[in-house]
Model the fold of this input.
Amino acid sequence: MSHLTAVPFHGTNIHAIKNDDGIHVAVRPICESLGIQADAQVKRLKREPWAVTSIKDGTGNDGKRYQMTFVDRRTFTMWLATIQTSRIKNEAARELLEAYQCEAADALDKYFHEGGVINPRASEHQVNAIIRQAQMKMELCQAAKGLIHADHLEARARIVLAEGLGENPVIDQAKRPLYVQAYLEQKNLSTSQLRKVAGTFGKRLKAAYTLRHGKAPDQYPLQIKNGQIKNVNAYTEADRPLMDEIWTDYYAQVI
Done:
């Protein structure tokens, strides 16, 4: 159970929850503040390939418990950039959204045509932190050489290198890392459902992978949001069909 808190965003506040997985923004309060229909926006988000939605238990300002639709920070950023501003009746909200969309358009243009972009408001400390983070990730990839599947390690290294250079990573889609947690989050499970499914899904997937490949999946040292390092099974997009089989056979009909 998480409590909604006010998170500063572009001079205003949004209602969100913060946990080890990052910031997740509640969709309905945002829609109500903009004067647009929340149900219609949720349906649209579920159709978009870039959107990740989830159902989480939350406690509202009235102290009551609700199941709410949330989007992660990445989805929230993209969602704001795609809302039709002409539908926003509140003038202050419309001007804020228009300013955000203009900045987003400039950032995308520089990213795709100039090789990268850094927020002009980023402090020297933030820029140095980005550089150091990339260095630490590359050192971790180098340390893991020979310990995990080469395809998985190569994909992670390419992603880290591209992030540091401000470029788009060139990766064979089949080699792109795919984590069990990320796969299950795409199923729009509630928090309680995700906790219930994650353990058994992971065990069944590992058993099926071992049976198919004659060996257990390699391990990958993953740094989670709270800074801790834990070993997780190293799957890639090539394993998605196997994940789909496990989901269909054991969970699709009961969730």
Q: What stands out?
A: The first helix runs from residue 27 to 34.
